[in-house]
Design goal:
This protein is mostly beta strands. It has 7 helices and 24 strands. It has a 6-stranded antiparallel β-barrel with strand order 1-2-3-15-14-4. Strands 7-16-13-9-11 form a 5-stranded mixed beta sheet. A hairpin with a 7-residue loop joins strand 14 and strand 15. Helix 1 runs antiparallel to helix 3 and helix 3 packs across helix 4. The longest helix is centred in the first third of the chain and has 16 residues.
Length: 475
């Protein structure tokens, strides 16, 4: 068994963060800057794992070991800010952590990034329970006997495990097993779904007196709300389009700019984009700062999603923007530094010094061991300091462990019940949640005004963005 940390408490809805990107830049002590700026949120939903809710039994077989009986089915998550998610596991040999915090994650930053069957998993999700909630129709198509919600969930989970983990796993219930066989055989490749909400790039920088950007909105929501910097009135910094017109709403493809007045003191500012939408089926959710069983989305109510972007400016000298992104192929963290100032920027990562010329960009891949937590700090001239924390969880046990050394001592749900032979049973555990099977018709009430209330606050954040700024450092 791989070591696991304890679960995190729920992240506050005003501090939505992901493990994808934090951003910042060297800046002075202007009114738009803060000594402890909030972490940036590239986009998507963050949620807390409530537990396994709709399930039945399955048996995992591993060479040289007794078969192990486990629970197999749907988990439920509560979205920060409002909403519910239903998910299946794509990490059979890892345990879940109670009340663990999760973030919406691209396939490339999870075990699916190197899994040639990732598209088939998405197909299964779209053609089985709960997306297909007519169980009689599903049973007829799959050639099974009557299905309950529990056996439908178990059969779906078993089929997913065969593709996500390469596991030798069988549903205990005969009809659930027939469903699993049908789904596995019928599955076809599907493309990765679009993120619910993301901003690209999540950080821009430059000199005051013009538009800094663009920051492009990517979303499946019909419309998003754009919240300006918290001190926009005092600083005069506005969020506009390319023509300088103020923007408060955005759709997919909208380009946003920070309009920084000339002679504005060196500093930084952040914007927040938020929407209430259904998160697309097939999006992956990974633990924020603890390795908790990777999940894949099977259904979503109307849920709050959020993204942030930061702009930094200075009158002269280097003006860096730093982002970080997991690189599952290279097994590390890609730290990218751009410099939109008029002088080179010199920075240090893990004891090694690097320089980015004015107008240039440099990416440094910091090696991180699988399942290890990372704590990477970027320091630079003028007191610049930025920290990235998280955990690298890119592979399943079956990806890295020899066949004769794979254990089955971790699984989904409750502790395993060893079983030497499958047990014929039709039991269903857990309680069915209230999500609509199609993921969109059961809207979760959202407190009025939350779209503008979610501003750049850092409490409960995972990435800690600290900038030690001084007027001298901006020269």
């Amino acid at each position: 068994m791989r070591g696991r940390g304890t679960g995190l408490a729920r992240l506050a809805s005003t501090a939505l963060v992901t493990g994808l990107v934090a951003a910042g830049a060297l800046a002075g002590t202007g009114t738009a800057a803060a000594d402890d700026a909030a972490p940036q949120h590239q986009g998507g939903a963050t949620a807390v794992l409530d537990g396994l809710k709709t399930y039945d039994s399955a048996v995992i077989k591993t060479a040289g070991e007794e078969p192990k009986k486990v629970s197999a089915g749907l988990f439920e998550m509560t979205v920060d800010g409002g909403g519910k998610l239903k998910t299946y596991c794509i990490d059979i040999h890892n345990p879940t952590q109670g009340q663990a915090a999760y973030k919406e994650t691209p396939w490339a930053e999870s075990s699916l990034g190197k899994n040639e069957n990732a598209g088939r998993i998405r197909w299964i999700l779209e053609h089985s329970y709960p997306q297909v909630d007519d169980l009689a129709s599903l049973a007829a198509k799959a050639g099974t006997g009557p299905l309950t919600e529990g056996t439908a969930a178990a059969g779906t989970q078993v089929a997913i495990w065969r593709y996500s983990d390469g596991a030798d796993v069988t549903a205990v219930n005969k009809d659930a097993e027939k469903l699993a066989d049908y789904l596995q055989g019928a599955a076809q490749n599907s493309s990765e779904p679009q993120a619910s909400l993301t901003l690209s790039p999540p950080a821009v920088s430059g000199q005051a007196g013009g538009l800094l950007g663009p920051v492009t909105v990517h979303t499946d929501a019909a419309e998003t709300t754009v919240a300006p910097p918290a001190d926009a009135v005092a600083s005069g910094v506005k969020i506009t389009d390319k023509d300088g017109n103020p923007v408060s709403k955005a759709t997919d493809g909208t380009e946003l700019y920070f309009d920084v007045p000339k002679d504005t003191a060196d500093g930084s500012a952040s914007l927040t984009v938020q929407a209430t939408t259904s998160v697309p089926v097939g999006r992956v959710f990974t633990g924020v700062t603890t390795t908790s069983q990777t999940q894949i989305l099977a259904g979503s109510s109307e849920s709050v999603v959020s993204a942030q972007a930061t702009a930094d400016w200075a009158a002269k000298g280097p003006v860096p923007a730093v982002t970080a992104q997991k690189n599952c192929v290279a097994g590390g963290l890609d730290v990218t530094t751009s410099n939109n100032g008029d002088k080179p920027f010199t920075f240090t990562i893990s004891g090694t010094e690097y320089t980015v010329e004015a107008g240039g960009t440099k990416t440094v891949t910091v090696p991180v061991a699988e399942d290890a937590t990372y704590d990477v700090t970027v320091t630079g001239e003028g007191g610049f300091e930025q920290n990235f924390k998280g955990v690298l969880d890119c592979v399943t046990v079956s990806d890295t462990t020899p066949d004769d050394d794979k254990g089955t001592d971790t699984q989904t749900g409750a502790s395993p019940s060893p079983a030497t032979t499958p047990v014929a049973a039709d039991t269903t555990g857990g309680a069915e949640g209230d999500l609509a099977a199609t993921g969109g018709s059961s809207a979760t009430p959202i407190i009025a005004g939350v779209a503008v209330a979610l501003v750049v606050l850092g409490g409960g954040a995972v990435f800690f963005l600290r900038r030690k700024k001084s007027a001298a450092g901006a020269q």
